[in-house]
Amino acid sequence: MDDFFVAGLSTQDTESKDVKNEYDIIIIGAGPGGLTAAIYAGRSRLDTAVIEKLAPGGQIAVSDRVDNYPGFPDGISGEELTKRMEKQAEKFGAEFISDEVRSVNESKTANYFFVETASHGTIKAKSVIIATGADPVKLPVPEEEKFRGRGISYCATCDAAFFKDKVVAVVGGGDTAIADAIYLTKFAKEVIVVHRRDQLRAVKALQEEAFSNPKIKFQWDSIAIHVLGDNKVEGLEVENVKTKEHTVLKVDGIFVAIGTVPNSNFVKGLVETTDRGFIVTDKNRQTSKPGIFAVGDVRDTPLRQVVTAAGDGAIAEFSAEQYIKSKERGV
Amino acid sequence: MEKLLKENDEKYIKDLFEKRLKDPVELVLFLESENGEKVNKFSAQYLPYTEEILKELVALSDKVKLTVYKDNPEKEKEYGVTHISALFVEGKNTDKNVIYYGIPSGHEFSSLLEDIIDVSNGKTELSTQTKLELQKITSSTEILVFVTPTCPYCPRAVRTAHQMAMENHNIKGIMIEANEFPEWSKKYNVYAVPKVVINDKEQFEGALPEDEYLKHVIKGAVNIILE
To answer: How far is B121 from chain A (nearest CA, A)?
Structure first.
């Protein structure tokens, strides 16, 4: 029964305030990047709001254990780590708004940005930090929609308990996929990792852990073709990319971790992105639109980790502050 | 039993309640003996923990009290209890319609704290538009929200259902801890959470923003006033 209750509480320790219609900095997204920016902004005594559409913490909140964030030699759950960041941001005065941002527009005078939300109207900001992260790529099979939530899952910590003593597949070969596979062995009797190459992309430490776990099997050089079943998942048909041979794996669940798509649609046309939608920034984390910054997984960056998102958040906040000061000086 | 709430969390909640609570809130908990007819072998093991955590919680404020009914079929009938444990958050904006089946632990513990604050203040944070739309629902509507305690997206789905129930007493907002009620979960093919089922006929998986959530609720409600 240890770890039975939350490491922290999401309820804000403040009098519930009305959302103001103007802030110095609006940070969109409350994952590690956004929360770090909020901590720095609060300490700079900037009037700061963080807008989050789902739950604070971002994608890492569903990670059972984070082993590569410095300062936690025994690892820490993604949930606890981000709850601590959230508390820290609150302590330094950041306000949290639960809402979805629909668009960002620049004022005619270029002195302000208008952040349009779903339920709190339009909020003004001198500078905007985009920290909206990314969502999992959907499993590219025709049956994805039919079986999503009926055996296809994108959140191992949320749904692992439904597959106690069952056989599950994990599709993917990166850090997330292998960490999920290891976590799932606490519940499932067998976990089959389906990966399109003949070796994993995940960090060596995770690979070693997976290879030494007797419950984890590997289906190399294979991609998912069809999900089989009537009302729920009964099997996964895979194709060997080298031999083109098809195999049906008898599984009750399929956990998918084959990469991410950036949440940048709401600023399409406003800031430059790569073909895949990742937001391009300079070394100050400024986007092609001065005054708008981007951090973490939504940014075009070679490494997407909690520590790099946090680093981005610090740099972006520093740059945003410089930007606001230069505007105020009329430069 | 060893204390379940850590000292830090106790301090935090005590402070939170002091600042945010206004009017009294009653937590009504239904328990049965292990062989009770509404208990199953999965939910049975959680009963002592559910009782313990709520006792510890109400000790942190004079404004929150706990009433426990054990093996009390009359009261169960009065509240419409179908499974055990059942917890109702009662106060000025609820009427036996903000409900937790199974232990509110892990992420759902936050939902309970937020519910207590809302009920004590007699208001919710739903948007004006949502509140207006909800008034169209004129017959009883059940929103079931299946969760696991390790799901970070679930509290939002639970809280939306509970707040809707606070705004319109025709609505019952019901959290179900899927691990404790495997049969119930199986009936609705729950393999991923949050899963929301409205009046057995409308359902969706995953966390949705308030406006889209509302559309499903309106669609699932039997009698709504047509414009």
So the answer is: 11
The half-sphere exposure of B200 on its side-chain side, counting CA atoms within 13 A, is: 3
Q: Which domains does chain A have, with CATH numbers?
A: 22-135+260-328 (3.50.50.60), 138-256 (3.50.50.60)
Q: Report DSSP state, residue A139.
A: P
> CB atoms < 10 A from the CB of A146, how many?
15
**Does residue A2 register a pLDDT over 50?**
no
A24, A64, A67, A155: the active-site residue: A155
**Active-site annotation holds for A67:** no
- Distant-in-sequence, close-in-space partners of B148: CB < 8 Å, separation ≥ 6: A158, A159, A161, B106, B154, B177, B178, B179, B193
- Cβ contacts of residue B20 below 8 Å, gap of 6+? A15, A16, B117, B120, B121
Q: Among A248, A218, A221, which residue's Cα sits nearest to residue A233? A: A248
B227 lies in some domain: no
Residue B1 located in a structural domain: no
Residue B225: per-residue pLDDT: 62
CB–CB contact B4 A231 (8 Å): no
Number of domains forming the structure of chain B: 1
Asked if B195 and A149 come within 8 Å (Cβ–Cβ), the reply is: yes
Q: Which pLDDT tens digit goes with each residue over B26-69?
A: 999 999 998 889 999 999 999 999 999 999 999 999 999 999 99
Cis peptide before B194 (omega within 30 of 0): yes
CATH number, residue B53: 3.40.30.80
pLDDT band at B226 (very low <50, low <70, confident <90, very high): low
Nearest CA in chain B to A19: B125
pLDDT for A13 equals 39
For CA atoms B216, B217, B222, B223, the dihedral sign is: negative
Tokens found for residue A35: 């929360």
Task: Tell me the pLDDT of chain A averaged across its residues.
Answer: 92
Contacts of A34 (CB under 8 A, 6+ apart): A27, A28, A50, A52, A58, A129, A131, A295, A296, A313
Report d(CA B49, CA B3) in Å as an integer.
10
pTM of the full predicted structure?
0.86
Task: Tell me which residue in B16, B106, B190 faces A5 most closely, judged by beta carbons.
Answer: B106
Nearest to B174 by CA among B107, B87, B95: B87
Q: Is A300 a catalytic residue?
A: no
